[in-house]
Amino acid sequence: MPDYKTYKYISEEKFFYNEYEYPFDNYVDYSTDPDIYENVLSFSGYLNLVLQVLSIFVSIFHCAVLFQKELRSTPIYILMKGICISDIFNISVEFYFAGVEREWISRIYSLSNLDCLRSDFQVINVTFEILKMIMTACRPISVTLAILMEVIRTLILIFSKAKFFSSVISARCIILLVAVTWFVYYSWNFAFITSLWYPDNLCDDPEVRERSVNFTEYVHVVPTTVADFMSTRELIEHWIRIIPSIFYPIITIEMISRLKKIHKGHKHITHSDSHENLPSLVLFMMITFTLSEGTDGIRTLILVNTHDWRTESLLIKKSLFSTEYIVQILRCFNIISHPFVCYFMSIHYRNTVKRMIGRRKRRMAVMFYLLEYENQIVVQVAPRLSIEHSNDRPRAVSISKL
Length: 402
Known about the structure:
This is G-protein coupled receptors family 1 profile domain-containing protein. InterPro entries: 7TM_GPCR_serpentine_rcpt_Srw (IPR019427). This protein is mainly alpha-helical. The protein is built from 12 helices and 10 strands. Helix 1 runs parallel beside helix 10 and helix 2 (75-101) packs parallel to helix 4.
């Protein structure tokens, strides 16, 4: 496997770009002084590292809030915890690879330079594959949970008696099912890993065999057919970015439509600012999500399907290469925005944060409040809230808990 670098020259004929193989243009001079595209790549790379560190710390704080007693039993917040933990693992491994690339962090895996293994097997590094599996699996886990969370919110708005989606058990089962599905998808190849004694499994080239016979060691390998399936999985990775970017806006538009109907049907009730701003916050979440996932997917789709462009499209190719870290920056912004959206969207989250920083004491009293969905009234239990009065009767409409 190639090193995790943007440009890793393997030979005079080809190079690798984020695991995708592209032909090397021998007639293009790659040794010239850095141009604007390389400067953009370099600057955005360092900015991305800063934002990755910030994303990790913000996500840790977000996770600490979600594990507080006031929030940890709410199904939607349980799903948020799954998203947050997945983001932490994904960004941490990405940062580790970037640190290894810049030689800031010691490498815990080694890349094999053995080039005379028999043709029906391919050498792999188990540690590298494990790290790569964690990084690649955690991102779609976060994306899938985010989409399911919006689906559940929308279904609750449409069917207010959807009790299944409001249970803690169902939320945890959803996280387990999603995590197992994606980890199996990205790790099934580990079942085919085996060890071979290298000197007994050399290739047929006499010259290469002669200089390789002295390498007396066991190597981890997978069958070539399995390696081909792994490569195919890499080549369709962009669809895992693009498809969610199509579904998420559709779900969000339906949710915003339902929220506006609810507000329109209860104009006589004075809503809090967070309720009035809820459609705008949901729209903001949709925009950041779509930019984070959709831009990356479309960019990779173009790169994979147009890698044989020549000099007539060199500027377009270089432009796409220079945006590698820009799309990662968009993802960092999306992750960093999560706790802020929760803070402004949910009074429960906001009160929990205020208590954690010492601005609000914990209130142990519990009361009943009413959630109104069109003509149906659902009674739920929540921490003490500020109750709005209408004709001297306490009434509260709260959809921020969703």
